[in-house]
Structure formats: C-alpha cells, structure tokens
C-alpha cells in the first residue's frame, strides 16, 4: 500500500490562506481519485485547511510546529519536518511506499495502482510531468528532468528512509534524509546507497505554478534565487523562455487524469 503525505504550511505564513485552501482541496481530490482504492493519505498541518471534501482514506495529523522564519532554508526545513512527522505517523500502517505531495500539485490517478503492483521496488522518481500556470488553457510538457523542478516527484519504499529513532521536538528534529529538503537529491543519494530509484514510466504530476501555493521557490524573489543558486536561476529563466514552445492545449483527458479542474473565484 502507498501512503501519500501532504505537508501544509501554517496559516500564519500562508500568502493567502483562502487561496491555499482551494489549491489544497483540488490537490486532495486528485490524490484520492486513484484507480486503486488501496492507499492512505496523511495531511500534516497546524490548522486543518478549509475543504468540503471527505474521504475514508484521509487522516489529518495536526501539529503545533512554530511558523518558520524568513528565508528559503528554514521554509524548506519546515516542510521536511512535516514530512518526517507523517513518516512516523504511518509507521504502524507498514506502507510499501510513500509519496510526498505538495498541497497545490495534482497527481495522476494511476500512481497507486502502479505502485501497488510493484510493492518490492525501491521506488521511482517522476522524470516526465506537466507545468501549469493557474487559470491557463494550456499546459507545458516536461519530457525529462521533472524531478529537478517540483517537490512532488519521489515515490520511495518506506524501508529506505533514514529517520531518527523517535519523533523529536521541532527544534531538535534533525538527522532525516537530506532529500526530504532537497527533492532532486533522492535520485542520486539512493543510487549511492545501492538502492536506486527508477523513472516513473508515465507522466505522474502536474506542477501548479501559483504564488499562494506550497512552492517555496515560487515565492522567492529573483534576487533571492540568484543569491542562493545562480545556475539554478539561469536554468529557470531559460526554461520559462522556452516554455511556450513546449505548451499544448489542456485537454479534457489531462484534466480528468489529474483532477485539474478550474478553481472557483
């Protein structure tokens, strides 16, 4: 069985809590729209997002983590700690795999079925996916390297996580896998351990670009990104300039597979 962990930032640091709740609602519906019923969802949050959607496979883990300060590093660390809390919470479920899903992204409805058919695999990284600017009638196709740009990109066998022996207080919670705070690292780190991930054999995720969402990098200014990683910033600029050449019409089939319905105003 696969478990999806959805870390949700504190309302105190949300750009727009109502907008984030709308994005979360859609993301949660996408996660639960799986063709296989054998999955669980753990939402790790300070405050439960406003949603009318209910599903028997969804549980909310409410934590009292302090809101993170300013800066890319502390915000990424906060997200990672929420995922760690989720990993501890699902231990007794004995899941085969875990996938961390950002609370604004949409995933393919075929993921649970595929993973459950391969319970002994080390896992997969999402090499192919889509990028979507909220409200657009088009969608950009990412044919390779999707895992480098989107945090919703790794499906990992639960036995491969290296966690502290027990859940610790927020300020003492260290020692978790570094790829929980740096998603592109999972592919290389797990390969070095002798437990390599495979590319997911189909486009698995829609990376939703919206300033109110969960993407820390989306909320950084250009100058902040440049100071942190100039090469990454230049790659991002190049990618955005070339994006129109990789766009296609957002079809009903894509909307249905990823539950990518328009958000209400």
UniProtKB/TrEMBL annotation:
Which InterPro entries does the UniProt record give? Nucleotide-diphossugar_trans
Top-rank taxon: Bacteria
Q: What is this protein called?
A: Glycosyltransferase family 2 protein
What is the species of this protein? Floridaenema fluviatile BLCC-F154
């Amino acid at each position: 069985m696969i478990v999806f962990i959805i870390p949700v930032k504190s309302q105190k640091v949300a750009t727009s809590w109502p907008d984030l709740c709308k994005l979360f609602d859609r993301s949660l519906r996408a996660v639960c729209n799986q063709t296989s019923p054998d999955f669980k969802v753990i939402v790790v949050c300070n405050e439960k997002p406003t949603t009318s959607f209910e599903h028997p496979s969804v549980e909310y883990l409410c934590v009292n983590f302090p809101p993170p300060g300013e800066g890319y590093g502390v915000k990424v660390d906060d997200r990672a700690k929420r995922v760690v809390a989720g990993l501890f919470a699902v231990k007794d479920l004995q899941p085969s795999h875990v996938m961390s899903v950002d609370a604004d992204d949409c995933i393919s409805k075929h993921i649970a079925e595929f993973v459950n058919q391969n319970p002994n695999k080390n896992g997969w990284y999402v090499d192919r996916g889509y990028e979507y600017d909220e409200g657009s009638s088009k969608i950009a196709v990412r044919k390779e390297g999707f895992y480098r740009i989107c945090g919703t990109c790794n499906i990992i066998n639960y036995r491969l996580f290296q966690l502290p022996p027990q859940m610790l207080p927020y300020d003492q919670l260290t020692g978790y896998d570094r790829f929980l705070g740096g998603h592109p690292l999972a592919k290389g780190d797990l390969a070095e351990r002798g437990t390599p991930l495979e590319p997911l054999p189909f486009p698995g995720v829609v990376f939703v670009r919206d300033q109110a969402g969960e993407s820390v990098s989306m909320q950084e200014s250009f100058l902040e990104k440049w100071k942190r990683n100039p090469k990454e910033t230049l790659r991002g600029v190049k990618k955005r300039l070339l994006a129109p050449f990789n766009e296609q019409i957002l079809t009903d089939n894509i909307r249905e597979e990823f539950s990518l319905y328009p958000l209400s105003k």
